[in-house]
Amino acid sequence: MNTPSDDHRRLLRMEGLLTALLRYGALVASAWIALGMALGPFQNAPALASISDRCLAVGIVLLIALPVLRVALMTGVFLSEKDYRFAAISGAVLAIIALGFLLGALNPHVHFL
User: Fold this and answer.
1) Listed residue (105, 33, 29) closest to 66, CA to CA
2) Among 67, 85, 86, 91, which residue is least crowded by beta carbons within 10 Å?
């Protein structure tokens, strides 16, 4: 049987994982965006302009991906803790997000609603 201190330690570990993911993910994404913005004034050099645009795109994609990674991390945490009810719920949310990405990638010109 789990004691309250064990539950508290698990909760702190889970919060620590989420905090690290969101903190360092936001820092990495912000660094990519800052690099792209720093290279932005050098638009006269075609090679640097291309690198600037790519750095900005990578940063934006990382910012968009952070919530999805959070759901994936939570699914893994719930599975490792054998909390199958919440693992199924977060897995269903992850499947819905993946389906949305897939439908958008297959034909971006179709309006579903």
Assistant:
1) 29
2) 85
With vertex at residue 53, the alpha carbon angle to CA 49 and CA 61, rounded to the nearest 5 degrees, is 165
Is residue 81, in this structure, part of any structural domain at all? yes
With respect to residue 112, please indicate whether it lies within any of the assigned structural domains: no
- Judge whether 60 lies within some domain: yes
Structural domain total, the chain: 1
Splitting the chain (113 residues) into consecutive groups of 10 residues, what average pLDDT does each group show?
76 88 95 93 78 92 93 91 93 94 80 64
- The model's pTM: 0.73
Contacts by residues 93-97 (CB-CB < 8 Å, ≥ 24 positions apart): 94/68, 97/68, 97/71
